[in-house]
Amino acid sequence: MTTTTTEPEAPTSAPGTPPKAVKRPGDLIFSGTALGSGLIILVVLAAVALFLIIQSLPAFKPDTTDNNILRGQPFLEWVWPLVFGTLWAALIALVIASPIALGIALFISHYAPRRLASAIGYVIDLLAAVPSVVFGLWGALTFGPMLVPIYRWLNENLGWIPLFAVPENAAPSGSGKTILTAGLVLAVMILPIMTAICREIFLQTPKLHEEAALALGATRWEMIRMAVLPFARSGMVSAAMLALGRALGETMAVAMVLAPSSLVTFQLLSTVNPSTIPATIALRFPEAHGDGTATLVAAGLILFLVTFGVNFLARWIVSRRAEFSGAN
Q1: What angle is formed at CA 67 by the lines to CA 290 and CA 298, rounded to 5 degrees?
Q2: Which of 5, 34, 38, 275 has its CB 3.0 to 4.6 Å from that of 260, i.e. a possible disulfide?
Q3: Residue 3 domain flag
Q4: Do residues 33 and 288 lie in contact, with contact meaning Cβ atoms separated by under 8 Å?
């Protein structure tokens, strides 16, 4: 007696319609995890914004006489110099770090031998692991005093430029604790992230574009200018905005390097410097109480909005360049 086995028939679909994809458990778990992660980010962001708004409401009361931070001063009048100092220090750092980061990234990706490029890339990445308090100690105790002779030379020879001028009957800072020193320390701190992102973007340039430029007789620099930089433009903007966000939120390094005061000035070498929001919160939070704590939380809300605006601007700039892929 013989037995026959029949295999199950494969599911058939109507003619002209594509077969339905089988949903495997692994696919469902992965898609659910990805969706949940995205929702968690949105929930956390909304929770932080809601916390800042609720906790900062007492700072906007008309009567601020009992506020040990404002001391009778309106909140907007108090926070404006801090917003200026935050943006000014971050802008100084970005202007100084951007060309250096681009140069290092181009050297690693297109000029240096492979072993040297690997060593330099490792050192650059290692800088990102240095704690900010170490940068602050280095800036306050070593780097700042080293810059004092340079500040005096700049004031004596370029004092006619408003940036390098100092108030009348005053001299440049003798300790090196100026907004320029803070900007330089921030530039060193944001250099690794800018360099790493730009390096990876440069390495993704299509080889056919580079080889085509070289085959047409372009020099290495002309090839970089015509093929690499246009392809990496949106990536360079993203790297700059991420670095700017890091500089805007830096706390301890600026608090240790800067000799702050509540004023708005563009002078880089003066002993009187605008403070930043993160440094002010870190320095004044231990003594704050009641409405004073709400005032510092409100300053954090302003910093949150500024950082959000910077990231939104970066996304807008990148989206405008999205039509250029460089690979087609």
Answers
A1: 70
A2: 275
A3: no
A4: no
Name the pLDDT band for 327 (thresholds 50, 70, 90). Answer: very low
- Structural domain boundaries, residue 70: 28-320
Question: What are 81-133's pLDDT values in tens digits?
Answer: 899 999 999 999 999 999 999 999 999 988 888 888 888 888 888 888 888 88
pTM: 0.83
- The DSSP symbol for 139 reads I
Q: How many domains does the chain have?
A: 1
Amino acid letter for position 267: Q
Residue 8 covered by a domain: no
Alpha-carbon distances, residue 296 vs 62, 163, 293 (angstroms):
17, 30, 5
Work out the mean pLDDT of the chain and round it to a whole number.
83
Answer for the pair 89, 76: CB distance below 8 angstroms, yes or no: no
Residue 82 CB neighbour total at 10 angstroms: 23
Q: Are the C-beta atoms of 245 and 309 separated by less than 8 Å? A: no
Q: Is residue 55 part of a domain?
A: yes
Considering only residues 321 and 294, tell me which one the structure prediction assigns the higher pLDDT: 294
Report the relative pairing of strands 273-274 and 260-261 from DSSP bridges: parallel
HSE-up (13 A, CA, CB side) for residue 28: 5
- Give one DSSP letter per residue of 173-230, joined into a string: -SS--SHHHHHHHHHHHHHHHHHHHHHHHHHTS-HHHHHHHHHTT--HHHHIIIIIHH
Contacts 24+ apart (CB under 8 A), 65-74: 66/290, 66/291, 67/290, 67/291, 67/292, 67/295, 68/287, 68/288, 68/289, 68/290, 68/291, 68/292, 69/284, 69/288, 69/291, 69/292, 69/295, 69/296, 70/291, 70/292, 70/295
Residue 152 within a domain: yes
Q: How many other C-beta atoms are found inside a 10 Å radius of the C-beta of residue 28?
A: 10
CATH code at 179?
A: 1.10.3720.10
